[in-house]
Prior knowledge:
single chain, alpha+beta, four-stranded mixed β-sheet, 14 strands, about 45% helix, flat
Amino acid sequence: MSGRGRRASLPDAGHKIPEPLSADGLVVRHYNAQGRVREYDFATLPVAEPMQRSLAALFAARCRPGRWNSHDSSESPFEGLRVFAKFVSKLEESPRDLDELSVAQLKRWRVSQSGSNGGYYVFTSTARLLRADARLQSGPVAEELARRMIVPKSRVQSYSEADFDQVRLAARRQFRAALLRIEDNAAHLQQWRQGAFTEGSRPWLLGEALDILARTGDVPRYATSDGQRSIPRRYQEVLGGRRSEVTWQRLFPTRLEVFGLGVLMMAEYGWNLSVIDHLEVPRASPDPGGDGHPTYRIPLDKPRAAGSRYETRNVTDDGADSKGRLITQALAATRFARGYVAQHAPEVDRLLVWRSKFPGRPFRNSQRQAPVGPFGFGIQKDHVAEWANLEGLSGSPFQRGRRTVTAVDRREPLQHGQDTHDMNYALVDERVRADAVEVIAAGAEDAANRARRAVLVAQIRDTPDPGDVSTATADCSDFDAGPHPAPDGGCGASFLACLACENARVHPGHHPRLVHLHQSLTSLRSVLPEPVWRREWADPHARLEDLRRKLGDGPWKQASAHVTDADRTLIDLLLTGSLDT
Length: 581
C-alpha cells in the first residue's frame, strides 16, 4: 500500500471522480470524502498476476462515491485480501485466478480464520468481495462463499457499577477543570472588552493577553535572536509564567480534556467513539414553551450504519440533571477554539476542538480532518492509552463503557437494531445475565420477539383527521380493519395496544395523556414484581419510550406540563381496567 494520506486535488463539482483502477489494472486509488487519495498496489500480493488483477477490479468497484467513503472502509478489506493471498500462495496447487478456486480450498480458508474476531472479519469481508465476481455467483464455490461463519463470542464485557463510576468520575473531574478554567478566563476577557479595567494595570494586561489569545490562538510572543519565540516579560508576570497551563490553556481545552468530554458523552448518550469523534456543532433553539431552555439538534454521522448513516438527536437543557446540559457545557468549553476555526476554516463544523501543545507537526492521517492552525479535532485512537494511563485505568473506556450503557443501563438499542442488541450486547454480557436470570430463563427468542412487538407502529401526525375516531390513547382511522377484531365486529384490542396498530394516529392532543401514561407505567415498575410488570406492562411502556424518542425531549417535556385532571382520570381508569375497549 502506498500514498499514505497523500492529499489529492478532488475534481470540482460537476466533474467526474477519477477512475479508481489504474490503466495496468494493478493499482487502486481510493478518494475519500475529504478529497485525499490512498493507493493500494495489488502487485504486492503474493498470488499470480491474473488473480491480482481480478482482486483489484473487485476492490476498485467498492472505492467509489456511495460505497466506501472513508479510508477506514478500504484499509481493513485490503489487509484481509493480503491475508487471503498469503493463504492462497501456500497451497500445494495454488490457483492462478479466482475461477480456479475449489470448495476444498475455501473450506480450509474458512477453518484457518475461525475462532477469532479478526479472522471472522477477514473471512467475511473477503468473501463479500469475492461473491461480486461474475464467475463466483453460482455453483458449489458460490454456495461455500455464501455459507455463514459462526460469529465468535465477544470478549468485551460491561463494567461493574463501581468501575464505571470510576471512569465517569475521572472524565467529569478532568472536563470540569477545563470548563471552570475557561469560564473564569472568559469572564475576565469579557470585562476587559467592556472597559472594566484601568489601562496598563495588571488586570488590564491580563485581559489584553487573553484577547490576543482568543484571536490568534496564542499569547503575545516576539522573535528572539536565536530563532525562538518568547512571551514578553510584562505578559509573563500577569499570566504566571510561560507554561501552557497558564498561557493558552486559559481559553482552550487540551486533547485529553476533550477526550474526557467524549467519555462523558458516551456515558450520557451511549454514542460510540466514531460518532463522538465526528460530532458537528449542535444548533440550539428555544423549546416550544418559550421559557428559554435550549433544545439542541445534534447531527450524528454513523459510518458503519446499515441504512442511512446520518440521523439527528434532540436534547433539551432544562436543568443541571437534564441530557442537554452536557451539550451546553461542551459548547462553552470549546467556544474560543471553535471561534478560531470558524475564522480560518469556516467550512469545518466540528464540536470537539482542542489546542495542540506542539502545533505545526507534520500531519499524515488522510482519514482525519487536518488541523487548523494549532487546533486539532475529535478523539484520536492514540489518545486512548494516554488518557487511560493518566487516570490509572486499563484499556479504552469506549467499548466497555458503551456496552455498559447499552446493555446494562438503558437495556435497549441505541444505534443499532433489536437483533444486534440482543445477540451482540445483551445475551453475551455477564452482568446482564446475572441481573436478568428470569428473562434469560424465559428464553432469548421470546425476549427478542417481545421487543420487536414493542415498537411504535401508530403514525405520528401534526393535526387530527376529522374522519378518525378518538380513543383513550390515539385516534383510529379504521375500527373494523384492525389486527384484533372482536367476535361481534369492531376492534377487540385494549386501548393500551393502540400504539401498536397501523390504523392509529397520534397528534399533539394526545401527547399530555401519553406522557402521563408513560409516567404511570414507570411508577408501577417500582411496586410490582419484575416478571409481573414485564408480562402486563412492558410492551406498552416500550412503545411509549419509542414515541418519546421520536418526538424528542423538548416536546415531551412540554407535553408533561399540560397534563390535565381529565387526562389523569382517563389513564387511571385505563390502568385499573375500568375503561372498556
